[in-house]
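FORM 12-B: Structure-to-Sequence Request
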């Protein structure tokens, strides 16, 4: 290594969990039976934030001179893993809906609360009223909680505005977070999260296609707002298949990845629609058809499963085992929002294993390489491989599985969170984010 380079060394780890070792963009089928793991290994991240070397500790020691490293972390007895990727969140909103949790516990369904003026519409009213600075402060706090739970790349949706001014306000907040906060963010326009009061789904879809999306395209060209994905809540009583198709197709034509809510509460054939349109990912899928699963596997369309939502809403669990057995690329997300208030991907993985019968390797792959694939970012995120971004977590445990096994234990387990080779969080008693 040429002189002048100042690197980060993570040395002597009990385990370094690569997840992938051959440049795979996702893992599916038989490739999920075991993940790539090195024992007694070290890892080096360069000043450009990219991984430079991974291998046996003694080989890394021979490759680099002692004065090369600006920072060294002794990982003896500990495990090094890729930063976690949360493939589905709604983190920009004002107000709270803790009262609705009591309603759900008393037996009210999601759509009953929605029709009574609660749910999304309740949050929309408060988000429309909230100043942009308030929304940014709340987002910053929520993303910091996610970082402390090991998330280094997160998908952030708009969708609590439904009108153009508020949707743009939310997207500006997400754009500011991209500039000012260290974690990676994939931004999603979700203006079709619900049908605005006083409009039909057809009218709302027309407004999005003729007003919202052209404005987003203009702001994207000017470099003011960068949006990666387009989302629609395709659901009975919300956006039907025709309206969903119209919105998603329009977004695709302006260069956005299709990544949308489908087949959650009712079987809508949303999976089949997503495959028809070339979707990168579809979320929820509690009510997906057998034909939809087969089509998604063939098309390499990712299924983003949300075990927190099924758990909190007492829905039937997504058929993760059938999807995995048929070769679907399964990813996981927290679905963080006022209705499913969970920051922790380790807890999501635990729920996925217990309630959806995923194995621990399947759950970790779904929260790293496959979640990155769902966001179109697995070429740089989701595994520990030379040339990829140095997004890393270090846990104080002799085996990586403790991150899933210890339900709710991530606060004690995660010692370091590193993004682009920089220590962003060190777990001391203050728990500060740098």
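FORM 12-B RESPONSE
SEQUENCE OUT:
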């Amino acid at each position: 290594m040429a002189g002048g380079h100042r690197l980060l060394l993570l040395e002597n780890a009990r385990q370094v969990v690569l997840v992938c070792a051959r440049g795979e963009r996702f893992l599916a089928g038989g490739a999920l039976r075991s993940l790539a793991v090195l024992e007694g290994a070290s890892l080096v991240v360069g000043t450009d934030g990219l991984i430079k070397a991974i291998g046996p500790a003694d080989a890394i020691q021979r490759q680099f001179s002692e004065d090369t490293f600006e920072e060294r972390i002794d990982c003896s007895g500990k495990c090094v893993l890729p930063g976690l990727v949360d493939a589905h969140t709604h983190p920009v909103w004002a107000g709270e809906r803790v009262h609705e949790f009591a309603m759900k516990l008393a037996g009210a369904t999601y759509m009953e609360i929605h029709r009574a003026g609660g749910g999304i519409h309740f949050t929309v009213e408060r988000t429309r009223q909230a100043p942009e600075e308030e929304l940014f402060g709340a987002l910053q706090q929520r993303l910091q909680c996610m970082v402390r739970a090991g998330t280094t790349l997160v998908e952030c949706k708009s969708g609590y505005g439904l009108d153009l001014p508020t949707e743009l306000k939310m997207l500006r907040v997400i754009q500011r977070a991209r500039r000012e906060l260290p974690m990676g963010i994939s931004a999603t326009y979700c203006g079709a999260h619900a049908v605005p009061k006083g409009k039909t789904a057809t009218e709302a879809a027309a407004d999005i296609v003729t007003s919202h999306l052209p404005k987003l395209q203009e702001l994207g060209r000017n470099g003011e707002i960068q949006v990666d994905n387009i989302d629609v809540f395709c659901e009975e009583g919300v956006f039907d298949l025709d309206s969903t198709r119209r919105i998603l197709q329009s977004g695709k034509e302006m260069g956005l990845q299709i990544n949308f809510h489908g087949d959650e509460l009712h079987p809508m054939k949303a999976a089949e629609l997503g495959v028809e349109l070339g979707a990168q990912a579809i979320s929820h899928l509690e009510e997906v058809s057998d034909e939809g699963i087969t089509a998604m596997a063939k098309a390499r369309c990712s299924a983003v499963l949300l075990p927190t939502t099924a758990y909190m809403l007492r829905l039937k669990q997504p058929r993760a085992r059938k999807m995995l057995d048929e070769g679907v690329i399964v990813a996981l997300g927290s679905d963080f929002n006022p209705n499913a208030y969970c920051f922790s991907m380790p807890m999501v993985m635990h729920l996925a294993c217990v309630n959806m019968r995923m194995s621990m390797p399947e759950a970790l792959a779904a929260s790293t390489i496959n979640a990155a694939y769902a966001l179109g970012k697995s070429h740089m995120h989701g595994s520990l491989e030379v040339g990829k971004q140095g997004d890393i977590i270090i846990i104080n445990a002799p085996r990586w599985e403790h991150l899933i096994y210890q339900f709710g234990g991530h606060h004690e387990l995660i010692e370091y969170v590193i993004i682009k080779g920089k220590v962003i969080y060190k777990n001391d008693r203050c728990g500060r984010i740098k």
